[in-house]
Amino acid sequence: MAELVFFSGTMDCGKSTLALQMDHNHTARGRSGLLFSSHDRAGESVISSRLGLMTQAVEVRQDTDFWEELVRRRTHGTRVDYLICDEAQFYTRRQIEQLARVVDDMDIDVFAFGITSDFRTELFPGSQRLIELADRTQVLQVEALCWCGRRATHNARTVDGVMVVEGEQMVVGDVEPAAVETDPRQARLTGGGLDELDPPAAPVIGYETLCRRHHMRRVTTLSARTQAGSDVALPFDPVAARL
Ligand SMILES: Nc1ncnc2c1ncn2[C@@H]1O[C@H](COP(=O)(O)OP(=O)(O)O)[C@@H](O)[C@H]1O
Ligand SMILES: Cc1cn([C@H]2C[C@H](O)[C@@H](COP(=O)(O)O)O2)c(=O)[nH]c1=O
């Protein structure tokens, strides 16, 4: 019996890696799959993992109709046993409903991967519909961590290193620890010698995974360092963790 499974978690917890591993395992057993993604950081029509794997995928657009897509492929003789659907938070509610119908009426497994909530802690519409319709929702075992050492449960967005809670829901970007280190203001704080450089022309959007406590208090790695003193060693520092 086919299933609709939603593999969810924060950013950077290994969803795309698992998506590609599952495809590999199913293919190795002679099953035939189709890969989909939407607005992957690495570009159009790919699923990319931070572990370095990258595989071609069909780009899901606003007007993609999964039902029609599957009917078309089957009519042309393509066998499809399962779908891998990455960045599923960006799919529309209607597209998630189409995926549920693909499972029920075509007996095709659908493995969907995505973050549940946005930088404001609100559910993405696609994720909400998946939680509502999936046979199973599975939170990934690999835990992304907050700078304080707790499990990261939320995604924060930073603009030029400062956490924000207002803005467009969708802005493609990455969690980049190195970006914190090379943030111009942080470099100035730590005497990084970037004072003479021009400020960046466009605001730099980044993401950081945080525990709920630090998301609600808006304390990122950078602001924790600033508040605790720039020489405080993070992460897992008990002094800084009290912030
Ligand atoms: N250099 C590395 N060495 C080992 N593991 C890494 C490395 N870089 C990233 N990872 C692992 O990859 C995970 C991110 O995988 P990815 O599939 O890209 O995440 P997601 O799709 O959930 O954003 C990290 O949580 C970490 O466990
Ligand atoms: C929190 C949040 C994230 N995004 C974007 C940023 C990335 O491009 C993807 C998540 O990709 P990952 O493989 O899970 O790291 O989502 C966004 O658009 N809006 C947000 O609020």
Could you walk me through the main structural features you see in this protein, from its secondary elements to its overall organization?
The protein has 2 domains: 4-139, P-loop containing nucleotide triphosphate hydrolases (Rossmann fold, 3-Layer(aba) Sandwich); 154-241, no CATH class. Helices cover 31% and strands 20% of the residues. The protein is built from 9 helices and 11 strands. It has a 6-stranded parallel beta sheet with strand order 5-2-6-7-1-8, with helices on both faces. The chain has a 3-stranded antiparallel beta sheet with strand order 10-9-11. α3 (93-106) packs parallel to α4 (125-133). It is elongated, with a radius of gyration of 20 Å. It starts with a strand and ends with a helix. The structure holds adenosine-5'-diphosphate (ADP) and the ligand Cc1cn([C@H]2C[C@H](O)[C@@H](COP(=O)(O)O)O2)c(=O)[nH]c1=O. The ligand Cc1cn([C@H]2C[C@H](O)[C@@H](COP(=O)(O)O)O2)c(=O)[nH]c1=O binds at residues 11-12, 15-16, 41, 115, 118-119, 155, 157, 169-173, 207. Ligand LXEULUCI binds at residues 11-12, 15-16, 41, 115, 118-119, 155, 157, 169-173, 207. Substrate binds at residues 170-173. The active site is at 87 (proton acceptor).
